[in-house]
Design goal:
Rossmann fold; six-stranded mixed sheet; alpha/beta; 23% strand; 8 helices; three-stranded antiparallel sheet
């Protein structure tokens, strides 16, 4: 499979069926380009999380292929950071030790990893909480720790599975702003899962709309907006126009699927 020059990976005619008979994806095609912020948008249960797991190598497609640019047979998991819906922190470990985990699994001692841990915590504004435990943190702070842990390896690709869905709106938008800053600083590619039209427009360069299960790509929209986005963008007329456009495509595609 030949990928476009700027692509880092592609899913080609992917199907995914689970052992219980549920078909999560059908004829799913997606190309991910370097340094883009790509959002998968769709209803609950449409296979968005399944796509992330296939990209991460945590699951294999039933049919079709996940192809990477260059040597596709290479294990790419070391290039990927994964942020799940829940922070999944170790409650018995402090913040620094939670961030250390990916480096520890690669054989780095706590002392050897100290600089990388400190840098990662500084990126998310938690350098003063290195010795704190998860029980002492707010929901937003726990998610920042989870992001710091995903970034400590300086991943080429960051996968995020509805990481802000359980947070209040103020915290959610604040973390959206922080995420865009982190992406710009690190120069990584982000594939982000959400079912929020507003969040998809707030964050993305490109929104991929998925059908109800079995999930397939039914529309792609380029978000023509400034790279640096924040409160000013979210109260602009342009933001409202883009949200309406994405919402309209989503509604029409869902109606077509049900017809």
């Amino acid at each position: 499979m030949t990928l476009p020059p700027t692509a880092i990976l592609a899913l080609h005619r992917v199907e995914k069926c689970y052992e219980n008979g549920v078909q999560a994806l059908s004829n799913f095609d997606l190309t991910v380009f370097g340094n883009e912020f790509l959002t998968l948008l769709g209803p609950s249960g449409c296979g968005k999380s399944t796509v992330l797991r296939l990209i991460a190598g945590l699951s294999e497609p039933t049919r079709g292929a996940v192809a990477w640019a260059g040597a596709s047979q290479v294990d790419h998991r070391h290039e990927i950071g994964f942020v799940f819906q829940e922070p999944t922190l170790m409650p018995w470990a402090n913040v620094a030790d939670n961030v250390w985990l990916p480096l520890r699994l690669r054989g780095l001692s706590r002392r050897e990893a100290s600089r990388q841990i400190a840098e990662s915590l500084s990126r998310v504004g938690l350098e003063a909480f290195a010795a704190a435990y998860p029980r002492e943190l707010s929901g937003g702070m726990k998610m920042r720790v989870s992001i710091a842990r995903a970034l400590v390896m300086r991943p080429r690709l960051l996968l995020m599975d509805e990481p802000f869905g359980a947070l209040d709106e103020i915290t959610r938008f604040r973390l959206n702003d922080d995420l865009l800053r982190l992406k710009a600083d690190l120069g990584c590619t982000v594939v982000f899962v959400t079912h929020s039209v507003f969040e998809s427009v707030s964050l993305s360069d490109r929104v991929v709309v998925m059908s109800p299960r079995p999930g397939s790509v039914i529309a792609e929209l380029k978000v023509d907006a400034p790279d640096r986005r924040g409160e000013d963008f979210r109260v602009s007329s342009r933001y409202g126009e883009l949200c309406r456009a994405v919402s309209k495509v989503l509604s029409e595609a869902m109606a077509d699927k049900e017809a």
